[in-house]
Amino acid sequence: MIHPSPGGGKVSQVTSAPSRTKRPTMVDVAALAGVSVKTVSRVVNNAPYVQPEVAQRVLAAVAELGFRRNHLASSLRSGQATATIGLLIEEIANPFYATIAGAVAEVASEHDTMLLIASSEENPAREQQLLRDLCARQVDGLLVVPAGEDHAFLRSEVERGTPAVFLDRPAGGLPADTVLIDNRGGAHAGVRQLVELGHRRVGILLDSTAIYTMRERLAGARDALAAAGLADDRLIRYGIRDPETAASVVGDLLDEPDPPTAFFALNNRISLGAVEELHRRGSDAALLGFDDFDLSRLLPYPFTVVAYDTRTLARTAAELLFRRIKGDRSAPRDLLIPTELVNRGLPRH
Amino acid sequence: MIHPSPGGGKVSQVTSAPSRTKRPTMVDVAALAGVSVKTVSRVVNNAPYVQPEVAQRVLAAVAELGFRRNHLASSLRSGQATATIGLLIEEIANPFYATIAGAVAEVASEHDTMLLIASSEENPAREQQLLRDLCARQVDGLLVVPAGEDHAFLRSEVERGTPAVFLDRPAGGLPADTVLIDNRGGAHAGVRQLVELGHRRVGILLDSTAIYTMRERLAGARDALAAAGLADDRLIRYGIRDPETAASVVGDLLDEPDPPTAFFALNNRISLGAVEELHRRGSDAALLGFDDFDLSRLLPYPFTVVAYDTRTLARTAAELLFRRIKGDRSAPRDLLIPTELVNRGLPRH
DNA sequence: TCCCAGGCTGACAACGTTGTCAGATCTTCG
DNA sequence: CGAAGATCTGACAACGTTGTCAGCCTGGGA
Predict the structure, then answer these.
(1) DSSP A61-79
(2) Do A70 and B119 touch (CB under 8 A)?
(3) For A290-326, how does the pLDDT look when each residue is reduced to its tens digit (9 = 90+)?
(4) Is the CB of B333 under 7 A from strand C?
(5) Which residue's CA is nearest to the C1' of nucleotide C7?
(6) pLDDT in tens, B309-347
(7) CA distance A155 to A64
């Protein structure tokens, strides 16, 4: 135990008023080390031709002052290379985009690059403003999950040396690298399997056809049904935004006179609602979903998903972007990430 | 069907060589508009005292050249205000951190600020390097979910005007704003409820006590058990990293001669494994988890979680940070986000 | 001895922008 | 009519860094 002596119990290492000291610059370091600013720059950047003992003096000064190179000034002067890329997604908190962000961050980190993330919130105007802002910050490249339909405004930026790679959805009005999921093929394969299992009436549940992925998946599903002569647009339900709506739509369809024996949910929010309703009713309708997700295997109803690897999607796009940043000027590429049919959910009863 | 005519099937709107034009600067705009650079600056920044017709000319030149102000140069010259904050988390793809990132991005957007995100991957050395890098990029402030135990190295940065707010875990060796979950209180309340329900043997499942949140939750649980005279350290299992391990540990405990009648899983990865095993065995042991998660209500086993609002945690921290950025120099604050007991999972059978 | 190459260093300008200041013009008021 | 202000504009320096270049040494070869 230490006896607190009045006023002296604690060494006052904390200056009570946070003294907003100015950041030291190379000028300060140079003065302390007795060299020129340029020499400091050379030492800080590991440039050759500095006498070891001079370098030591400089490093000592750097340490004493707590100098950190100003990255802004550095990249302003040296032209490009802010070692930053911009990622534009719909919404960070959404697990799909979070996975994308994680994979992109990983690739970025492999290239000693930082990640500036912006959320468009599905708003094309906001998307445009954010992309412009990212360019104004001189990012070395852009990764974009498009919200809008028209990206012509990016053309001049791309021509001026900020490469852009689009992922999950195609760019509009701009020749650019694109990395997409095989939405159409995956939906086709899944629905064909339902047909082969003997299903003749397949309810299709989707959000808006204003969304590219929905259009593609719907097209794939229709193709597969049409190929078997089973196309029936009365079984398609649009505008499903959340699990609750999905559940009630599934209920409505099951209550009709000649109900579907199978459902195709075009995204995982819809799958979730469908699982809930089918489980509640003890139904034995087949369920096919698009998009896998973390806990799908623990849900209380067996279903098949058209799965794909979101990380591969994102890594592929990011790696392509870095090739562009490093100077690859070849023609824009369109890459397709394959899908796979996977069984999920817990067996019935 | 389109007959491909040799070499002419497509209008060549794509300049084969993407001509890396230089970005126009205020100098270019000034020359085109026939004014000084400073006047361009004034127009671009909506400064007063520019004749409307001159402003028009400048804006026309801006539009014609596709000029965008260089944000780097701007914030270099004008001192601070990069309109960027840094967020350091463990791993972006993890839903917990994704939720944090989303909420932070939201608050940042309300302040017209962009978000630079970095992942420490639980590595203190990497954390330190990333935080330094963020400072070098002159961010206006830092939000940190600490990985390491010592953040004294940040002291000089904070004193030099980069405020930092820590969340979810406390900072080490640095007086700083901190926003934490009420881990201890939540665990205490949950376990007390188990005791009140008549449970006398509670298995406690956790990851490493090297993790702050684990220590706190464990302490809360022990307190509650001790208060009822039920403390029994033989029922505590450490080092559980993933659902699979959790499941097997639960199995082991249930196979012992005098098995627990209740389990407390200290995070949601562990809860998940416990749910799986309890469901598989058709057990009727009570389960208490810490951390709510999206699909918890659909899991096939009833359990109670100590829940909290991650978004509130993150928003609180972000708002505090922006108050600091705006100049609030009051003493560092410690805020506690409350928890709540919530029933989850589907009823047995 | 001189010359030249290579190692080492610093002065200076420049990156693109904005703060400061001074000057020019115009209005207003005593 | 003159002074005081308000409005408008541009020259210049500065933010912190790095590219360019010139110059200083030292040592080795002719």
Answers:
(1) HHHHHT----HHHHHHHT-
(2) no
(3) 988 777 777 888 999 999 999 999 999 999 999 999 9
(4) no
(5) A49
(6) 999 999 999 999 999 999 999 999 999 999 999 998 888
(7) 47
